[in-house]
């Protein structure tokens, strides 16, 4: 079979397929060769496309058509050129003729001009001769002579005229000739044009013929080529047909053979199949019998099962009924319960509504009450003010009255002394008592000045240095970094995983954000507070070593001084948080430098640790204290005896910190160590510090509440008048009362009684005096009556009538100041 | 069925069934021929569309259906529209070439045109030409001309005027009895005015080519000398019109009384037009002065390529003007100079030779047909080929080249490998010379496209070396024949 297939393939290849390696063949080597061939061909095609067209034409063998067309084109071009030359020949000849004509014409023109000029000169000479003759003629007197002369002249003129006419005739003849020549030329032109048209026509016909001929030739060439191609193709076709026939015969033979083989195979298979079929049939029949037996068995069991199932069915039916009953009961219960629930819900809603209403009402009431309170407060203020005012008025009135009374008393006293006792005036009374009111008045402005005075101090500190700011920024950054590193438990694990791949700064930002959210830190002041608290734990990593060495060198000398100073420092510095903080910081530094266990002790609150840990720590602490530096233990005991106003760690801090505070009392920058290094915080203390911060830090919402509570204070209605207590008032007025001493009173009483006695005597004397006067008058009147007519005696003035004396005025001035130059202001 | 004109007859011929096929036994018995388009021409009336189109074609001035109907109907209509539709309606609406072709042949049956590619432009140009050629200047209405020019201006690329009517010569006043007046015919000033071309030319913004002939055709007995004059005013009007033609390439004035002052005026205006490529003043009267102006034009202009000044009555001075311009190596890419039919002397030939020896690249073609060269002058003209390398064509027909000039020509051609065509008809040369010339020209034609050594081309010895300056070999020497050199002595 294979051989036959192969044979057929060879035949095919012989005729049709090119004997080239095929890409589709089974043999890998052949495939490779085929691919190489394909690539080579493609490259060749590309090269051919790049080459200019001409070369391609050159390469190709020119076919019949090309040959015919090129030869036709050449032939036609030659013919066209010839034709054009023939046609333009006419123009050339005419041009040539024209050139000759022009040359002749110009020659002739020159000749005739020369002739004319010669003639003109000749005639001019003759004319001159004639014109000269006229002068001679004028001299002639004889008419006959004149006539003869005139005739002679006329003759000469005729000769000249004849000459001229001859010339004119010649010229006219020339003109005629030229006219004739012109006509001839016209004829020639006509002829030329005719010839031109003839030639053009001829040329046209020639060209037409040439074109036809060439077309015919080209067609012939095309036909020849076509026939050649047809022959060639027919041959190919015939070969193909032959091959096809051959193949068909071969194929048919092959098919017949195959058919026979198939038939034989089929028979064998049939036999085989038959045997197998019989075997299978027997086997299957035995199987059927067994299966029938089993079927019988199964039938019996089925009957039993049906009975069982029937019983079960009955039981289940009953149960079902019970279930239905129970279910209905449950349903009813459920309904009831839902009713109850509904009513309860309604109640709750109602209660909520009521509550809301009540709330609103209460709110309104509160507002009303607040308003009423406000009013009341206002009224209170008003009344207190009024009261105060009136009180002051009354106060001042009584003070003025007292003053006036005092004045009067003083004046009376001086008068008494002058008039009655004839003594210099006594010592002035003590100054009037100080009003208790005035101290309230003077108190307020003082406090305000105190307050204002404190401000510039802050302002001075602010521009202290930019370095402080820088240091602070750095410290804050450090603190935040520490917080971000050490408080992973505040951040969600998932967030941490998410931000793992980002750079450190942005990671810190994220963690800090979440930490602040957890701690409820919101404002910058909170950060300030945080910073402040962390500052307590800050230490300078550079200075630690130095300090430690210095401490180790002179522990004994420092011990006493530090102890001494610790007392007064702790007392003097109590108010200043900053300084104490620095001390604390340095204590922390010390503790860190000394040991970590102590720092642990410092950092953690006891309740943060388990009991065992605490015990361990205490032990470690003790050991360290004993062997490390005895000064500290002393300080601790000292502090403990002091009463522990500060916490334990602070106390310890104070003792240690006393030295730097004394050495450099003026500390410009709290964010730098005394030597100007940047501070750092150990990461172990971060949690402690945070704890402390949390205890100190009030979250903003709570703060708000506290603020509200703080703002609600009982209003202060105290006015100066109210502030006075009864004793003060009484004391004040009693002072007034006791302004003049009791001795004086008694003196004045005595004086009064004496004067009173003296008054009665005086009164008696006055009465007697008046009686005397009366008597004198009566006496005088009686004497008048007695005398009667006695002459009028000169009136003598009574001796007892003396001019009235001016009242006594004290000779010495009163040096006492007026009791009150001015009323005290309220 | 009528086959529309858009199907060309050649196509039909090419696709028609061959006789052989028709006669073949399978085909011969057929009754119905699908390929026979004319089967019903005599049998059935024309289709209704045809009649509708016929009706439409008569009322084009009232109804323009072209935008609403199918293309096949438009094709039909184009065959039916009469040629006398007023231009006012047809110009803006009809684009079809067939219509314009038909119109052209129906309106100008005497004109035969070949190779027309744009019939609309041709027709409209012919209409304008017809109007301008025949309008009388005395009854010329400028508005009409402007209107026509406006209508046709976008389509006109060429305009040729073969004649122009002239104004009437005013006659002296009629003698009255008592008035004393000058009644002499000759005392009336002569007028040679034509219609002003300016208003028309200004509007022809697409014009590429303009040809003018001032004169009147077919006068027969009414011939007057004055009809072939034209005035400076005409020239000025023409120049004003030319100012607006941005695309003008070819300018012709032929067979006119174009004297030196007019040509100067025209050239002064044309020199501003950068687009000018060809100047054609054949058969005018430019004269020496005009030639000088033309020389100046060539010297200044940047784009002029072809100059034709055949039969223009100029002499040595004029030739010198042109020669000077050529010697100065002008910027213009001059290709062709036509000096034919101007009689030239030996001096002219000397000047020519000097110019073409010095300007070796510029003109490719020199035409000096029928210039009356003979003897020494012919020798000079033939000899210039030995030193010039620009010329590819030299036309010297109808000059007398017999005698010494033949030898000179052969010598010159042996040295020149550039020239391809030399027209030597009617030059009285011998057959051998002609054969030799043809042989040499064939050699040159084969050399086209091949690079030649520049040293081979022009002997450097005679160009810029002192020998060149010797009067004996100076091209300006009238006794010197260019190319005739002593033996070359190789330089040491």
Automatic annotation (TrEMBL), chain A:
Protein keywords: Coiled coil
Annotated Gene Ontology cellular component terms: axonemal dynein complex
Domain Dynein regulatory complex protein 1 C-terminal residues, every copy: 731-787
GO BP terms, alphabetized: axonemal dynein complex assembly; cilium-dependent cell motility; regulation of cilium movement
Ranges in a coiled coil: 150-213, 274-308
Similarity remark: Belongs to the DRC1 family.
PANTHER family on file: DYNEIN REGULATORY COMPLEX PROTEIN 1 (PTHR21625:SF1), NYD-SP28 PROTEIN (PTHR21625)
Name of the protein in question: Dynein regulatory complex protein 1
Organism of this sequence: Vanessa tameamea
TrEMBL record, chain B:
Name of protein: Dynein regulatory complex subunit 5
The organism's place on the tree of life at top rank: Eukaryota
GO biological process terms, semicolon-separated: cilium organization
One Gene Ontology term, aspect cellular component: centrosome
InterPro entries assigned: Leu-rich_rpt (IPR001611), LRR_dom_sf (IPR032675)
PANTHER family: CENTROSOMAL PROTEIN OF 78 KDA
């Amino acid at each position: 079979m294979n051989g036959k297939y192969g044979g057929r393939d060879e035949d095919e290849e012989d005729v049709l397929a090119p004997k080239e390696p095929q890409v589709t063949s089974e043999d890998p080597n052949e495939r490779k060769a085929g691919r190489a061939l394909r690539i080579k061909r493609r490259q060749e095609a590309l090269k051919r496309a790049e080459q200019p067209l001409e070369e391609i034409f050159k390469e190709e063998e020119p076919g019949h058509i090309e040959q015919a067309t090129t030869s036709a084109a050449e032939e036609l071009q030659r013919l066209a050129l010839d034709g054009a030359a023939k046609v333009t020949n006419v123009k050339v000849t005419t041009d040539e003729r024209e050139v000759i004509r022009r040359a002749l014409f110009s020659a002739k023109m020159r000749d005739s001009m020369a002739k004319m000029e010669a003639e003109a000169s000749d005639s001019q000479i003759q004319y001159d001769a004639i014109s000269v003759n006229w002068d001679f003629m004028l001299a002639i007197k004889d008419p006959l002579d004149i006539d003869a002369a005139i005739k002679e002249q006329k003759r000469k003129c005729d000769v000249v005229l004849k000459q001229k006419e001859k010339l004119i005739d010649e010229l006219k003849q020339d003109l005629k000739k030229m006219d004739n020549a012109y006509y001839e030329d016209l004829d020639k032109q006509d002829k030329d044009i005719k010839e031109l048209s003839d030639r053009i026509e001829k040329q046209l016909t020639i060209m037409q013929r040439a074109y036809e001929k060439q077309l015919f030739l080209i067609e012939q060439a095309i036909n020849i080529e076509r026939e050649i191609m047809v022959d060639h193709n027919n041959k190919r076709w015939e070969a193909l047909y032959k091959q096809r026939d051959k193949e068909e015969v071969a194929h048919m033979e092959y098919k017949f053979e195959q058919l026979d083989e198939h038939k034989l195979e089929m028979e064998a298979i049939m036999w085989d199949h038959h045997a197998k079929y019989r075997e299978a049939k027997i086997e299957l029949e035995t199987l059927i019998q067994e299966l029938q037996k089993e079927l019988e068995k199964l039938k019996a069991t089925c009957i039993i099962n049906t009975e069982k199932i029937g019983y079960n069915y009955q039981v289940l039916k009953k149960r079902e009924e019970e279930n239905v009953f129970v279910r209905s009961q449950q349903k009813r219960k459920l309904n009831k319960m839902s009713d109850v629930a509904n009513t309860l819900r309604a109640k709750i809603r109602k209660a909520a509504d009521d509550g809301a209403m009540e709330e609103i009402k209460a709110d309104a009431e509160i507002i009303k009450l607040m308003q009423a309170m406000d009013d009341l407060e206002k009224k209170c203020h008003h009344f207190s003010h009024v009261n105060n005012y009136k009180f002051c008025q009354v106060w001042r009135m009584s003070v003025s009255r007292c003053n006036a009374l005092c004045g009067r008393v003083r004046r009376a006293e001086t008068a008494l002394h002058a008039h009655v006792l004839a003594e210099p005036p006594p010592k002035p009374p003590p100054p009037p008592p100080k009003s208790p009111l005035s101290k309230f008045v003077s108190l307020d402005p003082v406090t305000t000045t105190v307050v204002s005075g404190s401000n510039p101090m802050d302002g001075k500190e602010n521009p202290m240095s930019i370095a402080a700011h820088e240091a602070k920024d750095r410290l804050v950054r450090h603190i935040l970094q520490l917080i971000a590193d050490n408080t992973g438990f505040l951040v969600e694990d998932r967030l941490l995983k998410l931000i793992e791949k980002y750079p450190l700064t942005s990671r810190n930002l994220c963690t800090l954000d979440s930490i602040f959210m957890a701690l409820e830190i919101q404002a910058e002041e909170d950060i300030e507070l945080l910073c402040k608290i962390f500052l307590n734990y800050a230490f300078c990593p550079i200075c630690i070593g130095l300090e430690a060495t210095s401490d180790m060198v002179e522990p004994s000398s420092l011990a006493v001084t530090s102890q001494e100073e610790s007392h007064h420092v702790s007392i003097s510095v109590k108010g200043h948080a900053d300084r104490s903080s620095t001390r604390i910081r340095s204590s922390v530094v010390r503790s860190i430098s000394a040991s970590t266990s102590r720092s642990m002790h410092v950092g953690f609150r006891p309740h943060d640790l388990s009991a065992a840990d605490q015990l361990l720590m205490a032990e470690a602490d003790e050991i360290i204290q004993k062997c490390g530096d005895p000064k500290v233990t002393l300080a601790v005991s000292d502090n403990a005896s002091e009463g522990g106003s500060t916490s334990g760690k602070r106390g310890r801090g104070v003792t240690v910190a006393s030295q730097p505070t004394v050495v450099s009392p003026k500390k410009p920058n709290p964010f730098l160590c005394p030597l100007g290094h940047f501070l750092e915080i150990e990461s172990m203390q971060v949690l402690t510090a945070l704890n402390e911060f949390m205890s100190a830090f009030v979250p903003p919402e709570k703060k708000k509440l506290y603020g509200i509570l703080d703002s609600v204070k009982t209003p202060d209605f105290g006015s100066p008048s109210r502030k006075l207590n009864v004793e003060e008032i009484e004391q004040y007025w009693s002072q007034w009362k006791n302004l003049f001493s009791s001795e004086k009173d008694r003196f004045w009483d005595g004086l009064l009684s004496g004067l009173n006695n003296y008054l009665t005597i005086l009164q008696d004397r006055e009465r007697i005096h008046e009686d005397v006067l009366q008597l004198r008058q009566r006496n005088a009147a009686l004497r008048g009556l007695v005398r009667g007519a006695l002459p009028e005696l000169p009136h003598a003035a009574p001796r007892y009538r003396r001019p009235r004396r001016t009242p006594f005025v004290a000779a010495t001035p009163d040096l006492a100041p007026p009791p009150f130059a001015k009323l005290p202001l309220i | 069925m009528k086959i529309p004109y858009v199907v060309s007859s050649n196509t039909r011929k090419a696709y028609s069934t061959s006789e052989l096929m028709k006669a073949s036994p399978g085909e011969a018995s057929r009754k119905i021929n699908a390929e026979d388009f004319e089967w019903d021409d005599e049998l059935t009336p024309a289709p209704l569309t045809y009649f509708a189109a016929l009706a439409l074609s008569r009322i084009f001035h009232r109804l323009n259906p072209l935008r609403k109907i199918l293309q096949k109907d438009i094709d039909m209509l184009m065959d039916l529209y009469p040629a006398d539709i007023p231009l006012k309606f047809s110009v803006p609406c009809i684009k079809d070439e067939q219509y314009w072709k038909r119109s052209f042949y129906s309106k100008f049956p005497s004109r035969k045109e070949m190779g027309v590619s744009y019939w609309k432009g041709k027709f409209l140009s012919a209409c304008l030409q017809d109007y301008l050629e025949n309008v009388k200047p005395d009854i010329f209405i400028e508005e009409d001309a402007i209107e026509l020019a406006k209508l046709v201006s976008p389509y006109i690329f060429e305009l040729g005027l073969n004649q122009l009517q002239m104004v009437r010569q005013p006659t002296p006043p009629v003698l009255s009895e008592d008035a004393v007046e000058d009644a002499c015919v000759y005392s009336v000033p002569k007028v040679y005015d034509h219609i002003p071309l300016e208003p028309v030319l200004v509007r022809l913004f697409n014009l590429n080519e303009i040809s003018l002939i001032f004169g009147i055709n077919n006068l027969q007995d009414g011939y007057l000398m004055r009809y072939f004059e034209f005035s400076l005013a005409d020239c000025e009007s023409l120049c004003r019109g030319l100012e607006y033609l941005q695309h003008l390439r070819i300018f012709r004035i032929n067979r006119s009384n174009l004297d030196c002052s007019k040509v100067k005026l025209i050239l002064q205006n044309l020199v501003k037009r950068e687009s000018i490529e060809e100047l054609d003043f054949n058969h005018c009267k430019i004269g020496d002065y005009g030639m000088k102006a033309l020389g100046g034009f060539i010297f200044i202009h940047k784009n002029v390529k072809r100059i034709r000044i055949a039969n223009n009555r100029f002499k040595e001075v004029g030739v010198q003007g042109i020669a000077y311009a050529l010697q100065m190596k002008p910027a213009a890419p001059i290709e062709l100079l036509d000096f034919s039919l101007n009689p030239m002397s030996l001096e002219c030939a000397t000047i020519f030779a000097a110019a073409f020896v010095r300007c070796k690249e510029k003109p490719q073609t020199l035409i000096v047909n029928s210039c009356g060269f003979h003897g020494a002058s012919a020798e000079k003209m033939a000899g210039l080929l030995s030193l010039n390398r620009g010329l590819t064509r030299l036309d010297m027909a109808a000059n007398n080249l017999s005698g010494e000039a033949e030898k000179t020509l052969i010598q010159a051609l042996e040295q020149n490998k550039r020239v391809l065509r030399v027209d030597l008809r009617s030059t009285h040369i011998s057959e051998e010379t002609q054969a030799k010339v043809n042989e040499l020209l064939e050699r040159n034609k084969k050399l086209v496209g091949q690079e030649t050594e520049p040293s081979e081309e022009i002997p450097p010895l005679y160009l810029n070396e002192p020998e060149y300056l010797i009067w004996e070999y100076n091209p300006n020497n009238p006794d010197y024949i260019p190319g005739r050199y002593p033996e070359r002595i190789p330089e040491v």
